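Minutes, project huddle
Topic: does the predicted pose make sense with 6-hydroxymethylpterin-diphosphate bound?
PN asked that the exact inputs be recorded in the minutes so nobody has to dig through chat later. Recorded below.
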Amino acid sequence: MTELPVGRPALMGILNVTPDSFSDGGVNFDAADAIAAGLRMVEEGADIVDVGGESTRPGAEEVSVEEELRRVIPVVQALASAGVNVSIDTMKPSVALEAIDAGAVIVNDVTALKHPEMAAVIHQTGAGICLMHMLGEPKTMQANPAYADVVQEVLAFLKERIWVAESCGIPRKKIWIDPGFGFGKTVQHNLLLLKHLDVLAATGYPVLIGVSRKSTIGRVLNPDDPLPVEERLEGTLAAQVVAQMKGARIIRAHDVKAARRAIDMTCAILEAEK
Ligand code: HH2
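Predicted holo structure (tokens), as shared on screen:
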């Protein structure tokens, strides 16, 4: 698995090879466009490129294994053979396996090993795994999500999934965790999870955060008429800086150049000495 950079968060560029992702659907649906976009992300400062072939936005339709493979494998192969650290954003063990064969080194599973075969794929291949919290399923997750204490419940879920992963033989150093910003959460839940991200960081497992362009940002900045995705960059950067200061080790972002600059500027401030 990719070694995380020492002393600063890694930047994971988002590359959706889909027609329907919430903010960039259709932009890189063609493999050649996707490969060029992935290489550009690395030039702009991405440490990892996260390739996804199925949208997880609320209400998204499921994609067949064959179609997901058709979308992602040529892109993973081309980027990995160009030396890029590739993660594969999938919930399907068969897609994860083929992507790892094609050179992916991390599996970003938004269901945190829900499929019974996923843990074995990760264990047998030696890939890394990002375990993300989601309440319910993409289709229904935003229908009235409720928690007594969102931070403690997300923490408990992630600890249980870490236990499952490690019980299946996945080594501790291959595991990242993610509170799943926007996955079965209200605006208030998302804000609380960011504000208290240090609680997750205190587990010692690297914390990944994906705030980029998410609807909470549009809602906070204009509650009566949420800002459209192309108006969410400033809010995204503010949220990722808070996450960094609260201990996030991997930042997942669409706007790689801007995200890189925000990470580097924050690092410079945090590392300044008398
Ligand atoms: N968010 C999305 C997808 N995958 N993975 C992790 N680990 N964390 C996240 O917050 C996360 C994720 C949703 O964003 P995006 O990929 O841009 O949209 P879509 O799912 O519509 O393709």
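Observations noted during the meeting:
- Residues 14, 16, 18, 21-23, 52, 55-57, 89, 108, 110, 130, 132, 178, 180-181, 208, 210, 252 surround 6-hydroxymethylpterin-diphosphate (CB under 6 Å).
- Residues 113 and 193 are 22 Å apart (CA to CA).
No decisions taken; revisit at the next huddle.
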